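Morning, I've got a small favour to ask if you have a moment. It would help a lot if you went through both lines with me. Thanks so much in advance, here it is.

***
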Amino acid sequence: MSILVTYATKYGSTQGIAERIATSLKAQGLKVELQPITISRDVAGYEALVIGSAAYMGSWLKDAAEFVRRNRSILSTKPVWLFSSGPLGTATTDHQGRDVLVASEPKEFAEFQEAIKPRSLRVFFGALDRGKLKGAHRLVAMVPASKAVLIEGDFRDWKAIEAWAESIAHELRQAVVATG
């Protein structure tokens, strides 16, 4: 079974998550190809896909959203898992008492749930290294009030990421057994 793990990242945090997912799937004996979404072209040759993107201001990166929309007809016929990275910090609930990961779901998730019916949608905490920021992101990070929102550090939960990848591998193995 060939699986494509593809991702869109701005500063590398989402790439790290995609790499960990690919490594975990390979450790489960699956054939995995890892590619940035900007070079992922023909998805027809893969039996399953894991697609991820960083989220900014409630939206996936443009390349990732366009990739899913462009390949919608093929993706709707395959097992697909979607993930997003973005929230920073260690708080599990926001100031309104909502689960931070649920509240951070990119708006595209609702559209993609309807269009391609992914097996699972997950949001993972991200990472921020202020030294990597460029352009407008760098300027925003310089505003003193941004320090409360743009918390520097690596907040990725590697155990949760690996557990999700293992659940994907388990589901794929079950599908192979079911089809004989």
Notes: DSSP finds seven helices and eight strands in the chain. The radius of gyration is 16 Å. The chain has one domain: 2-179.
